[in-house]
Structures
1.
Amino acid sequence: MGEKAVAELKGQVRGEVILPGDERYSEARKVYNAMIDKRPAVIVRCTGVADVIAAVKAAHADGLEIAVRGGGHSVPGFGTADDALVVDLGRMKGIRVDPAARTVWAEGGCTWGDFNHATHAFGLATTGGIISTTGIAGLTLGGGIGYLTRGAGLSLDNLRSADVVLADGSFVTASEAENPDLFWALRGGGGNFGIVTNFEYRLHPIKNIVGGPMFFEVEDARDVMRAYDSYITNAPRELGAFFAWQIAPPLPFIPENRHGDTMCVLVVCWTGPPEQAKRVFAPLRDAAPVVAEHVGPMPYPALNSAFDGLVPPGLQHYWKAVFVKELTGEAIEAHMKHGPKVPVVNSTVHMYPINGAVHDVAPDATAFGHRDAKYASVVAGMWPDPTQNEANIRWVRDYYKALAPHSEEGGYINFAAGDDMNRVGANFGRNYDRLRTVKAKYDPHNVFRHNQNIALAA
Ligand SMILES: Cc1cc2nc3c(=O)[nH]c(=O)nc-3n(C[C@H](O)[C@H](O)[C@H](O)COP(=O)(O)OP(=O)(O)OC[C@H]3O[C@@H](n4cnc5c(N)ncnc54)[C@H](O)[C@@H]3O)c2cc1C
C-alpha cells in the first residue's frame, strides 16, 4: 500500500492499521493454526462498522485482495493471506441481550466464550461450538455444530438477521424480510458474500446442564460406537453427545497409571431436567465398562470451555471432514483401524450428531446443504511440534481415505482442509448451484475469496 493510501486509511479508521515493519505486525499476522505463515500487506483491526467499510473501500482503491478474520480459527487460515488487506474483527466484541425477546445481537469479533458469558447471565444460550475460543462468525456462517444442535438446531438456524458490509463497501441488513436471498446464502455459504459485522440470534432457556466426558477402553470402542449410534437416533433432543478418540490427558479424575493411554470417549450434555440425566445417560454409560468419567451438573459455559486446554493457540492443524448418513459396519472398522493410532493428546476424531432439530428444517430453507446426514465427522490433526508435520498429516489423510468410501462425498466446510478446494461443490452439497447464483449477484468480482470459495454462476 502506498504512503498516501495508508495515511488516508489511518485517517478513516478508529482501529489500528498495522503494516509490515510495525512492532505489532508479527503478532497481528498470526492466526490460530501455526502452520499458516502469511504476510499480509496491511492488517486493519476494526473497532466498528465504519472501520470495516473504510477498509473494504481502501482495499478496492488499492487493488488489494481482502481476507476477513473473525475468531481466526479457520484451519486453512482463511483469516489471512499474502499481500492482502486483512479485515480483523477481533476487537468488535459488543453484545446486547434482550432477555424478554430471547434475542442477542453480537458483533463479528465475538468468540463463543464472549457470547456464552453474556447470554448465561440471563439463563439463555444458543447452539455454538464446543471450544470457547472459536469465533461466532466463521462458525455460524458455515453451519454451527455443538452440544445444543439436536435440540436447538445449527447456529445458523438460530440466526434472525445479519448486518453485512458488501464487496463495494455498501451496508445492508439481511433477514427473512430484507434481502432474503442474501440471508439464505449467509446461512451455510461461509464468508463468500460479505463481512458480517453483527449477528442477531434467537436464544433458548438453557442455563445449567449435566455433562462431561466418559472414557472407555480402546478395545471396547466398537461396542461404544454401536451403542452410541443406535441410541442417538431417537434419544431425547435435550441430549447432545459425541463420540471421540482421545489420549487420556493427565487429569485428576483419570487414574494416574492410565494417563497417556489411548481411549475412546463419549462427551455428553443434557439440558433437560437434571434428575433425569442418569437415566438418559444409562444406554451410553452401559455401552462398556467406564474407565473414568467427569460427568456432573455445571453451567453451560463451563462445558463449553472444558476442553480449551487441549487446543491452545499455536498448534499445527490439519483436518479432514465427512458427512455420514449411516454408520455402517465397514465405517466402524475403518474407525477401529485408524482411531487407536491417534498420534498426540491434542489430536482427535469427533463424530457429531446432526439429527433432531437440524432435520426439522427443510433442506433448501437455508444454504446448509447436508441436512439429510446423521453425523458430521472430523479427523482433527492438532500437534505442537512442527517437525512432526509429515507423520500427523499422514495420519489424518490415511484415516480420511479409509472413511471416505463409507461417507458422503462432501464434508462440513468449517472442518475442511485448505487442500479440499476440489471438493467445494460436494461440501456445499445440494444447494451449491443456488449459492453460485447468489454469489454472482452479491460478489460478482469474488472479492471474498479466502474461504471455501463458491464459483460464480456463469
Ligand atoms: C479448536 C477448534 C474447535 C472447533 N470447534 C467447532 C465446533 O464445535 N463446531 C463447529 O461447528 N465448528 C468448530 N470449529 C470449526 C470452526 O467452525 C471454523 O474454524 C470457523 O471457520 C471458525 O470461525 P472463526 O471466525 O473463528 O474463524 P476465521 O478464521 O476468523 O474465519 C473463518 C472463515 O469465515 C470468514 N469470516 C470470519 N469472520 C467473518 C465475518 N464477520 N463475516 C464474514 N466472513 C467471516 C473468514 O473469512 C474465513 O473464511 C472449530 C475449530 C477449531 C480450530
Note: Residues 354 and 374 are 5 Å apart (CA to CA).
2.
Amino acid sequence: MEWNRIGDALYDGKVDEVATLIKQALDEGHTAQEVLNQGLLMGMDKVGKDFKADLLFLPEVLRSGKAMHAGMGILKPLLSESDSTTLGTFVIGTVKGDLHDIGKNLVGMMLTGVGMEVIDLGIDAPPAKFAEAVREHQPQIVGMSALLTTTMDEMKTTIEALEEVGLRDKVKIMVGGAPVTQEFAGKIGADAYAHDAISAVDLAKEWLQS
Ligand code: B12
C-alpha cells in the first residue's frame, strides 16, 4: 500500500476513496493500527498544518473530517478488538456551551490510535456529564476542549464539579483548544495543557507509564 494515497484522499475529502483504500490495505494484510497511523493520521496532520497556515479553509477541513470519520468507522471495531489490554482510559469532551469538535475529535482519534480507550462525551458537555463519566468509566485521564474565550471558564467549573463529588484526585486533567494556555491551565487547577494532538498523546502516554 502506498500510504500517501490514503492520506491524499483524506486531505481531498474523498470519503468513498478513503473507504476503498482502507479496505484494500486491510485486505493486503496491514493492521488497522498501521492504516490509522500511516494513512489517516498522516493525512489529518497535513490538514491541520495547512489549515493553520491558511492553505486550507473550513469547508475543506470539514470534508476531511467527514472522510476521517468514515475511515474511523471501518477501523474502530478492529482497533478495539486488537487492544485487549488497553493502555488506559481517557474521557474527553468539549465543555458546556461550546460546539467546536474538530480538534477534540482529532485528539480522541490519535489517543485511540495508540491503544487508549476513549470515552467521548461529545460537544456542549456540562460538568455533571464529566463527573458521571468519571464515576462510571474510572478513567486515568480527563481531557477538556474549549475553542471560545466565553466557554474556557467552564473548564474551571467542571474541575470544581469533580472536586465537589470527590473525584478530582482520581484523575489527571488535561486541557486544550486554541484560546487555552499553560498559564490558564495552572490557574484553574488542571494538571496540564497540551498544545496539539501529538503533545496530548505524548503526555497521556507519559502519565500512564509513570
Ligand atoms: C470550525 C470553526 C467553527 C465551526 C465548528 C465546527 C465543528 N464541528 O467543530 C462552527 C461553524 C460551528 C463554529 C461556530 C462558532 N464559532 Co468557531 N471557529 C471554527 C474555526 C474556524 C476552526 C476551529 C478548528 O476546528 N480548528 C482546527 C482544529 C484541528 O484545531 P483546534 O480546535 O485548535 O484543536 C487543536 C488544539 O487546540 C488541541 N486541542 C483541541 N481540543 C483539545 C482538547 C484536549 C484535551 C487537548 C489536550 C488538546 C486539544 O489539539 C487540536 C489538534 O491539534 C475557528 C478559527 C480557528 N482558526 O481556530 C473558529 C473560532 C474558534 N470560532 C469562533 C466563534 C466566535 C464562533 C461562534 C461564536 C460564531 C458565531 N458568531 O456563531 C460559533 C460558536 C458556536 C459555539 N457555541 O460553540 C472564534 C472564537 C473567538 C474566541 N476567542 O472566543 C474563532 C477563533 C474564529 C474567530 N477568529 O473569530 N466555529
Note: The CA atoms of residues 129 and 158 lie 9 Å apart.
